[in-house]
Amino acid sequence: DAGVIQSPRHEVTEMGQEVTLRCKPISGHNSLFWYRQTMMRGLELLIYFNNNVPIDDSGMPEDRFSAKMPNASFSTLKIQPSEPRDSAVYFCASDSRVRGSNEQFFGPGTRLTVL
Amino acid sequence: GNSVTQMEGPVTLSEEAFLTINCTYTATGYPSLFWYVQYPGEGLQLLLKATKADDKGSNKGFEATYRKETTSFHLEKGSVQVSDSAVYFCAPGSEETDKLIFGTGTRLQVFP
Fold it and tell me: What pLDDT shows up at residue A2?
């Protein structure tokens, strides 16, 4: 299995532009998580989905952020408009929801820089 | 809700030294417990896990024991290597949700 796939790996954009990050979870996994990691705030859970349905989006910082999961093999995180404080590494993770496990598999991350 | 407290870093050691990174948690019930490791420039990857009380997780020379009485899951290694330099995250799971509760991470630096 290729693991969790994220694209792009690096994104540099200017303030005000729309940014879309993409994630392909491991096949057969039915939970998907988006995280953001910064030096100041550490690792933060933004939102997670079960069976393509958003379950908890309490970590989404504001309305500029939105996430979708149109099918079991694809999810997007969109920032519109982007701001310099959005600069971070964004990780996607998936798990299979085996009861008693909670083991998540992380992608390599997308490093976002907003100028 | 669940929470986790992790030893602050950085932890700086010489090669072959003994390592302990403390982790304590609060949780409802008895969730699975995890240690993740993040090498420079990479995503998090599972290092080890334990799914019930008194279980010992182990991998790559690292160990951690699920201590229900003290709600702890301390990470240990008898002899660290330079290649162990990374950030280590303690993460209890949840019996009610699918979330992992990640600690702040502890940076380990091992010098030759």
Answer: 81
- Evaluated on CA atoms A63, A4, B85, B23, the torsion sign reads positive
CA B72 from chain centre, in angstroms, equals 10
| pLDDT per residue as tens digits for the range A68-107 | 999 999 999 999 999 999 999 999 999 976 655 678 999 9
Burial class (CB in 10 A: 0-12, 13-18, 19+), B101: buried
Instruction: For residue B7, name the pLDDT band (cuts at 50, 70, 90).
Output: confident
Q: Is A50 on the interface with B (CB under 8 A)?
A: yes
Compute the distance between CA of residue A2 and CA of residue B43 in angstroms, rounded to an integer: 14
In the predicted model, is pLDDT for residue B30 greater than 90?
A: no
Assigned token pair, A25 = 């979870």
For an interface test with A, which of B98, B99, B101, B102 has the most A Cβ atoms less than 10 Å from its Cβ?
Answer: B98
Query: Which of the residues B6, B44, B89 would you substitute to probe the A interface, choosing the one with the greatest number of A C-beta atoms within 10 Å?
Result: B44
CB pairs under 8 A between A and B: 54
Give the length of chain A: 115
Task: Determine contact: A54 vs chain B, CB below 8 A.
Answer: no
Cβ distance of B43 and A102 shorter than 8 Å: no
Which of A96, A78, A94, A107 is CA-nearest to residue A32? A94
